[in-house]
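Hey all, sorry for the wall of text incoming. These are the two entities for the joint prediction.
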Amino acid sequence: MMDSGRHPNIELMAHSEVEDVSGYVGNFQVRVRKKARYVVEGECTACGDCAPVCPIVRPDEFQMGLSTRRAIYIPFPQAVPSAYLINMEECLGDNPIACGKCLEACDKKCIDFDMRDEIVELQVGVIIVATGMEVYDPTPLDEYGYTSHENVISTLEFERLISAGGPTEGHFVRPSDVTRPKRIGFVQCVGSRTALSGSNPDGSKGNPYCSNICCMNTVKDSLLLKDHYPGTDITVFYIDIRAFGKGFEDLFMRSKAEGVKYIRGLPGEVVGDPETGNLTAYVENTTTGRLETHEFDLLVLSLGAIPRKETGLVRQLLSLSRTSDGFLMEAHPKLRPVDSPTRGVYIAGCAESPKDVKDSVTQASAAAARAGILLNSPRITVEAITAVVDPDLCKKCGLCAKVCPFSAITWQKGEVAHVISAACAGCGTCAAECTFDAITMRHFTDQQIYAQIDAVLEQDSLEKILCFACNWCSYAGADTAGTSRLQYPPNARLIRTMCSGRVKPDFVWYSLQKGAPVVLVSGCHYADCHYIDANRNTVRRVDALWQGLEKHGVRPERLQLDWCSAAEGQKWAKIMRELEEMRAAVTVQEAEETKEALKGKKVPVSSKVWRLKEPTPATMRCMRCTHQWATTFDLAVDEERMCPVCRNNGVRVLLDGWESQRR
Amino acid sequence: MPIDDPRIGVFVCDCGTNIAGSVDTDALRAYAEALPDVVVAVRNRYTCADPGQQEIRRVVAEQKLNRVVVASCSPRLHEPTFRDCVAQAGLNKYLFEMANIREHCSWVHIQDPSAATKKAQDIVKAAVARARWLYPQEEEQLPVTDATLIIGGGVAGIQAALDLADAGHQVYLVEQEPSIGGIMAQLDKTYPTMDCSI
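and here's what came out:
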């Protein structure tokens, strides 16, 4: 901390927020708001003369509200920068009638009530996102009594209470009567591994994932207690103890050897005695299968980690993706773990997933090294797969700019769209959106793709399944099927695109007109889309195609959609087997009729479903196994569709009118 | 129309028995050579190995090829290898195309050599059709500003800042709280070494 504060190459901007980021790899422009401290940072010596005279007393956030601070304060004694600040919302002001006492107390005269926020513009080549985590708020899981019993505390409160720099100077006491607790319980997995998927769609009761750090943190806490107060009786309630890291098992064994009791099973209820402040926990010991009752003086809730709210803002500013748990998604979970999908932006620490100090440091050094590669190159090259707008064909509609996940297309009303090629990642969803053929994807041109379709369907078209596969997931999933030697029918013919978002509806229309019995559009699962959310456009276009095919009397099932990750070789093989059955069912007559039916017909680009403004009752129909179920469809909820029976992702939304029309 | 008169060379790889085990690579080579605009088709035992690459460079020069198709494994594996190879042969590296007849064909249709061979022919045919429309591409070069923004001054942000700063790069470390340190600063001790957090 201290080192970074005085390093000549580091400009520390504390009490500051990133407000805007523009530009692209190697050339980002950043706007930072340096919030006013009202104390001149470079002048303040942290002598502390100002705080005692301040009449305003507030809970101290650093001490988890277990002690107080003044309106003029330093967050903690070792703070960097080592300077006081005033919380102006709490301060009475500098008017001598109201207050102004700190002004008098400050010998160096470094308090400045006229200070204003400062906007700083920065030019940087790379960005590292290390926005960290928050701890889970245990209020919704109130069977543990966090809100009703004073002696039920959180892990961070524990840390402050046992710290020599804490409110009690390290004398460990419980909140209700400031006495030393002799029987202490720890409850693990509070807010982690608690939600069964689908049990609480609003996420109000914990999260399904493991928070990684809490087991070892409790093991550490138990040893601290045993070290400071050897006689303390400690019980830990857990689901599994995950002591997987170097030196972790040793620490866990030490804790057990010190007499800490580990009981498998989480309390179902905690009851407090208002007289004594003691707590009774009722728990099913799942090792013995017995119900047990334990009495404690203090109960510590081992809280899980959740993504920090501010990470969401940063994610939007930088066009990053997140995984289903809300943490930032890396470019590749194994091979590019600190790269983000946006080139020149790296991820480190708990912003990516909950992790301990060692892993955060490791990842930070990795991100720094990755960033260094770019910073040390005099110039960097961009793969020539970017989009190019033909100004003669552009009709200035701006749809391309709207669908670009990277904000790489600039457009203003009445103006030709312009691609910033350095920011373009080459997904091609703009080219698929453009109905005027004004966008060329370098190296994945319409011409090249049509040539591939023609080559495949020129002969024996009825025997072939035409598959569009995205480079990152479904093409790679097919590779995995190969590497695993999974056997499947030999009828598929793949056309690789960078993203399923590149698949222009015209390609599908053309393939069916050329006699393809079945066409598959495949891409990444929602959480894995390498172009943030470009594959949502794929779904929208396929919805429109299904509607259009049905309108012209073509079975919409002949267009299949599915997501297959790079790891899902098994799924790829399964898709291939299922599609082969569908292909075999298409007769020469049906294929010929399709050619006639689609001849000269306009390619549909929008469906009713995507014009819905509010949640609407709908029937979902699996386009593979025909399973149907009723639901309320809401476009605003960005969820991957999946058939609960066959797990196919090609699920069609039928608004009720449509359904009755079909039957 | 293609920008020039395409002269395509197809290089069919046996990959030992990985491809040749279920795909008749001789028949595939002959099939490829008969495709329109294909000037020559060559069969190799291992196209990615040095002799295989030398062969590509030699044939490009001899036959004045302006497009190269390699029918072998996944482009996710060896596209960079062969792009470099054709660049060494003096062609723009975007004039190269790959036909995946291993992961997507020979390995998944082991029991059915005739279907595998037929499918491999289609895959090569589509690759050649695409190759006809390939254009040379120039990769854009961009300057890099030698400075880093780090958002978040917890332990990860601090470590990344120190590493980059020690390596001589300018770093801007932005923290929303009045002090850096993050959650780690609030911890008393940290595992597994039980030392102080600040």
